[in-house]
């Protein structure tokens, strides 16, 4: 079992509700789970640790409280940063901005780079950073009352922590992507499901978290060699030609097919029994 | 206010129905807005001018008349070009063809390259070039009676002005893309919405144009720095890896976050009032 | 007419049910059309031959029997290969594995590389290799009772014959792609249609094969120059930037617009009669 | 023969010293051929015209006078532009800057995009823009007294009109590229030849221009289909994988091998006589 | 020892002059080793077999006789193909041409795709196809009297079997590449060495073959896991970004570092003795 | 002035010999500066700090002692890691290996990612990791007695920390790259200079360090906005198409041209005096 003590970070509850399953809860409900800098730094620390933790095979990310997955950036807190200028020289300010954005992106991308699948439940208010963050996850569920918005144009900027780079590779309706990104309008789960932003809509937060934990639990029973390879190859292929994806897959599986898991999974399948797999 | 006199081009009506909103109407309704060469040359001239016009922040493209957004290429007119051969040497003819296609593509791509978001309403007959053209736009609306068709195979050629290059990056159902491109069959708005070719279907042309103008008007009230950055980054990311998209976004926003708009938008948000933004 | 004698391969029935239409039937119904090595080697031989056969313009791929398009890899047969290790040295085993995977991939990719459009009907059990194979086809139909599953994680491996490389370029819902690839859960046609994996769902196998043959027949009446160019450009553009897609299209059509087909198709269109096209 | 009247542009002498050969001379020797905006705009107009002129098959670019190919940007003239700021808003200034740079780049890239091979002779002072410009040419000659410098860091900017994007694809010594780009030190022809920036060093300007004209003349006697294809494919392949280069070449030559030139060249080769080729 | 009987192909002598070393000699000296179609088909068959032959670790490719590595395509033989037109329809002829070029390219690329390093000695006349072929090899030696020429423009075509796609990735002087490809001029070994086309120039054919065999023999004593990985990663990285190259290398070596060879090589290095490696 | 106390890391001396110049010396001369894990971890920490240190504008990397820049990996120390196997399951071992390689690569790439230019002097023994490391630097100098070797094949592996991914983008002679990488033979500075691996060869270590410090000092006097932009754009362009390089440059300079440095540098140039620039 993973050690909860290893995951003691401000603004997060990390628990292990089932074997090989981690649950990361963003925990600032009194502020609708809005993000201050320490939160995204800690997010990266948590997911980098989970990535190599042999006791973890699937992860669920949710927000505490009934009202919001996250309302996005804590604008009040961030406004100090945004409203002061690092330098009177625009090129020097640009350099400081670039470093800051790259650092912030890197934190959110830690979720995508985590070797284990990450599921998330978007419930209630899911604005701005909620999209950046959930698009770094592998599987997105929402509820009948989720309110989504790519909010950034309304605070005078183009979303820069991942939403605009990942949406065109996650959703198959470019007209819709541009409509919601350019208008910042709020939309609901029915629309999110129809265009392909989420893969399931559940009744309420409780039900959604339950279903997500069930799916995480299912994934965690499978060979971690197979599961982690599947995540890696899908992400690699998403960004490249089919030919490059195929070739990479062959090199990847050249090693991975040598796993004992394959033999165990195959035999247990033929013998109609359940296999267990050693840690990875 | 933009000057309508600057946009006096044959086959087009260009008007400015709201602040910062331009409306470009293809105006050859007696021929179902079918395109002759002067039309695509003028289209490029108009959109290149709109791209840098500080009085314009959102653009709507529609077709005049009730019957068609556009029936596509004016085949009768084009047939002269297609049926005569520039040279008896196939390599020299190929060179002439390539130059001609690249020139034609460049005209249609001027819509995509326009720095401002372009919405379009596909109504009535929307064949062939209607797809090439609308896929160069950012947001596509249609009506309950729109008839779409990727018509080109029926005149003996593979669509070469953009449809085949942009469809796989705009719609998330490759089986459907190939079905309609290989068969040239006519399909309607319900199907277009389901597969993700359009983002909204409205009752009739009037209603669709009204909604599109409303959306264009909304976008035009937002920071042009934020809006134009959003369009640019989405188009850049669509074509590249997520990693490259993120890096480009950081470099782009290194400058753009220095805008006064961000401060104004953020403060007006916190203070629940409406911001206005200087020209871009 | 193509010569059926040229297509006499174990495990396949190849017939020519209409002019310019080939029908390839996977024929091992007693084993749910599960694949042994000879079957994928023969598949490649058949499709490489069809690719250049001037008597063929559209191809339908189906599975014999009522129960399955294909249940995937014949695990019992494959298990011998999977369970024996080519070498005691993991690097040498990796080399053997890589060669084997690349060879297997090459066989399945022969369907994608075939110059003529390939339609397929997924009916009944469509597990594992059924996805790899159908994603190499251009157009996918299914029936109301089709059972799909990306089954590979359940036998301890990441799918490596094409599913993971092609899904992100074929379906516009990354959350769903990861859900079904990581969980191996069975899903049906309604879901497949909604997310964009298939473009049509028909009542039963008979109806589906009938509709697919009708569509194949329609495509076969069109100019093969136009049809094959459309397939080629869509596949090229899927993998590349819009700019590269456009440029490639211009170079491709520089030659292809010189075809007599274009003149014939255009004139027959203007004159409301039907054109026929010479072999390609 | 091309018509010199068509090429009457300020700051340039365009002559046609031999059949199918154009000679473009930058003509502002009293200012060491330093560039003002009109000059790069005219450069683009000239090369776009030459690109499609059937009477031109090879082009030589040189600078008038004994002292300089070009001393680069006319800093005195440009300083007005550089020292005034388009807007007090850094984001709006950035937008204006980006448009200006893209426009300037487009002008210099017109030389690379010209379908015909462009040779250049770098003599005397060849600073800053001299590199951007010559790297857009296909073949570079210099003289024993040429003084090269990537001068831009010395005026406080990273070279942005092409030098930094083209050097890594033109010269095979990255250490040297960075040394001269970061230090702005002046270097001579011996060094330029050793690292691969030029392909020949001649004694003086006269001799260099003579040799370049001889080479241009030789190229102009060859099949323009073969010559222009060679330039195109080399530029395409430089930027892409070998696999993509090969595939593009096959599609390109699918049309180009149909030329009468190939038959004429081949037969004249076998029959030891000289072929002539029709215009392109 | 590899079995010479397995390599009995017209126009080639295949011998095994040292342990793990194969020597492939193009054997049509009476025609200056000029290529007819059977020759490139056989070349591919030989190199595909060598690629997987566990008794081969390094390969030398040379041309029989004193006069030529190869004079290139047998133009007299090819002229029949070039001078007859497969179809009166330029699009159909283009299709036939494309298939033919892709097939021919595939044969030459079999040398690059061969898993084992291929050295070649270019001696005497080395025109046209000699470049295409040697650029598919890994290491190129020449002699003081080698005469090189990218001859294709002189027969009216752009070189399409690999020279133009591989030169920009093999030689670091783009000006020189274009000069010799556009002029077809003959050049010698001194120039080839200076620009980086070959890595060594030896006195005569005998000496060059001797040195090449010595180098092949040296490579053959090393771990085949290390050697074949080095070839693969260099080719992969040549075509991609440094970041992609690094990532691929990590995945490749994840398996390959598990080899016994590493332990044996490392220990034998520490113990100053010679390791031997099992077959691959 | 940068604070030497901030750079107190085992195995390194970091000094600041001139304004804005840092000198990083690998300091394990008694072991020929061979690397143990702590050394590459510290290297990354040092260069990440230097990257953002406003008191540093140019960096020199050298090795302590007379005998070696570095003899590479400390094989004796590493052999423990290499010779023990993390898991009996080859797939689990592969996962551990991949993580280890990616971590090691990341440390060495920290030099390339450092925003400031990094020069290095390769003296004496420069084997294995010496190449990986120096290829991550921007500018390479060597001495008349430097002994280079891509040593990795001799210990049974393909070099995986950067050499194989960066060589094809740094040196313009692929035949030579493969020759030295496949044979592991030792070569000297004359050869390194000829093929383009280094840009200068100096008499001895003292002279080389002196010249490198002079060049670093010169670079440090220039606008850091211009210098850092030049490094960034060259690295970006090296990996991408010319078109993408140009576009990125325009977006980069859209902000950077707004620097006061440009005005200061330009005016001081016109006024023949020396500019100073504020920190970055």
From TrEMBL, chains A, B, C, D, E, F:
It is found in: Peroxisome. One of its GO terms (biological process) is fatty acid beta-oxidation. It holds the Pfam family ECH_1. GO terms for molecular function: delta(3,5)-delta(2,4)-dienoyl-CoA isomerase activity. Its main location: other. InterPro entries: ClpP/crotonase-like_dom_sf, Ech1-like, Enoyl-CoA_hydra/iso, Enoyl-CoA_hydra_C. Pathway: Mycotoxin biosynthesis; Lipid metabolism; fatty acid beta-oxidation. Keywords: Acetylation, Fatty acid metabolism, Isomerase, Lipid metabolism, Peroxisome, Virulence. GO terms for cellular component: mitochondrion; peroxisome. Belongs to the enoyl-CoA hydratase/isomerase family. This is Delta-delta-dienoyl-CoA isomeras-like protein. It comes from Dothidotthia symphoricarpi CBS 119687. The lineage of its organism: Eukaryota, Fungi, Dikarya, Ascomycota, Pezizomycotina.
């Amino acid at each position: 079992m993973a050690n909860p003590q290893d995951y003691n970070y401000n603004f997060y509850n990390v628990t292990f509700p089932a074997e090989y399953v981690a649950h990361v809860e963003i925990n600032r409900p009194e502020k609708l789970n809005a993000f201050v800098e320490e939160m995204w730094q800690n997010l990266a620390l948590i997911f980098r640790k989970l990535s190599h933790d042999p006791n973890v095979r699937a992860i669920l990310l949710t927000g505490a409280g009934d009202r919001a997955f996250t309302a996005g950036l804590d604008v009040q807190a961030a406004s100090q940063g945004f409203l002061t200028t690092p330098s009177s020289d625009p090129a020097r300010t640009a350099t400081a901005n670039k470093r800051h954005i790259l650092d912030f992106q890197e934190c959110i991308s830690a979720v995508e780079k985590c070797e284990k699948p990450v599921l998330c439940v978007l419930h209630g208010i899911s604005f701005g950073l909620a999209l950046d963050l959930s698009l770094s996850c592998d599987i997105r569920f929402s509820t009948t009352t989720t309110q989504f918005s790519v909010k950034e144009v309304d605070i005078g900027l183009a979303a820069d922590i991942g939403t605009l780079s990942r949406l065109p590779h996650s959703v198959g309706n470019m007209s819709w992507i541009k409509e919601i990104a350019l208008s910042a309008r709020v939309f609901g789960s029915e629309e999110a499901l129809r265009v392909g932003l989420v893969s399931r809509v559940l009744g309420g937060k409780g039900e959604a978290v339950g279903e997500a934990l069930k799916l995480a639990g299912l994934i965690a029973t499978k060979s971690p060699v197979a599961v982690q390879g599947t995540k890696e190859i899908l992400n690699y292929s998403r960004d490249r030609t089919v030919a490059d994806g195929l070739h990479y897959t062959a090199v990847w599986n050249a090693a991975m097919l040598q796993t004992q898991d394959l033999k165990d999974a195959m035999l247990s399948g033929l013998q109609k029994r359940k296999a267990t797999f050693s840690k990875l």
